[in-house]
């Protein structure tokens, strides 16, 4: 059973929210699951533009609202707003030593590597639409990645792998399988600052669902 790690925040002070988040990160082990059961933090990630911004910072490193806007084809005012929302909930942070005047540089904050969305039953009924939107945005990203796969495979099959299969498992075995998959992913993944020479950022997805349902 997935542990419940985050308490519901009631403070409207963004500095307290960020402090709470970072305190939890410091106290956690890197492989420990972090449950995103705070609706406000979940809502911050339930937006396509913010997901794209996080992706850019993850893959390409620090950037300004201007450079991100150029990459994503968005106005600077739009990217600045979404950057502030991501900062408010601790997903990114400013780089003070690189910022000057109105130009602010941003990087991905040190967050747990195993971030997990809650099950619907772990949220209050009024908060469940936020979870639905979070998943909808994620599934749209997944569809776009799936469409890119054939071309990536033709370009270099050593860097594009896929697998299909059917297995029979109990619910308990399936839970163990999923935890083992996450552990394996963490074992072979590196944070950007710790990656060895030759390491590339990889999009990795795993889906599993019952085969005996329509």
From TrEMBL:
<dbReference type="InterPro" id="IPR051081">
    <property type="entry name" value="HTH_MetalResp_TranReg"/>
</dbReference>
<feature type="domain" description="HTH arsR-type">
    <location>
        <begin position="40"/>
        <end position="124"/>
    </location>
</feature>
<dbReference type="InterPro" id="IPR036390">
    <property type="entry name" value="WH_DNA-bd_sf"/>
</dbReference>
<dbReference type="InterPro" id="IPR036388">
    <property type="entry name" value="WH-like_DNA-bd_sf"/>
</dbReference>
<keyword id="KW-0805">Transcription regulation</keyword>
<dbReference type="GO" id="GO:0003700">
    <property type="term" value="F:DNA-binding transcription factor activity"/>
</dbReference>
<keyword id="KW-0804">Transcription</keyword>
<keyword id="KW-0238">DNA-binding</keyword>
<dbReference type="Pfam" id="PF12840">
    <property type="entry name" value="HTH_20"/>
</dbReference>
<dbReference type="InterPro" id="IPR011991">
    <property type="entry name" value="ArsR-like_HTH"/>
</dbReference>
<dbReference type="GO" id="GO:0003677">
    <property type="term" value="F:DNA binding"/>
</dbReference>
<dbReference type="InterPro" id="IPR001845">
    <property type="entry name" value="HTH_ArsR_DNA-bd_dom"/>
</dbReference>
<protein>
    <submittedName>
        <fullName>Helix-turn-helix domain-containing protein</fullName>
    </submittedName>
</protein>
């Amino acid at each position: 059973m997935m542990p419940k790690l985050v308490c519901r925040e009631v403070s409207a002070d963004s500095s307290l929210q960020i402090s709470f988040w970072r305190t939890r990160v410091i106290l956690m082990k890197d492989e420990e699951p972090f449950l995103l059961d705070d609706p406000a933090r979940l809502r911050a990630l339930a937006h396509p533009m913010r997901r794209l911004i996080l992706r850019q910072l993850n893959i390409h490193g620090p950037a300004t609202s201007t450079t991100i806007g150029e990459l994503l084809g968005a106005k600077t005012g739009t990217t600045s707003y979404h950057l502030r929302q991501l900062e408010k909930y601790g997903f990114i942070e400013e780089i003070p030593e690189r910022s000057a005047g109105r130009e602010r540089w941003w990087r991905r904050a040190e967050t747990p590597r195993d971030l997990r969305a809650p099950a619907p039953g772990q949220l209050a009924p009024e908060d469940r639409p936020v979870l639905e939107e979070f998943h909808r945005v994620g599934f749209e990203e997944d569809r776009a990645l799936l469409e890119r796969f054939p071309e990536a495979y033709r370009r270099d099959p050593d860097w594009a792998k896929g697998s299909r299969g059917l297995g029979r498992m109990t619910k308990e075995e399936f839970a163990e399988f999923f935890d083992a998959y996450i552990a394996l992913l963490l074992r072979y993944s590196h944070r950007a600052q710790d990656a060895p020479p030759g390491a590339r950022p990889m999009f990795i997805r795993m889906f599993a669902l019952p085969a005996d349902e329509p």
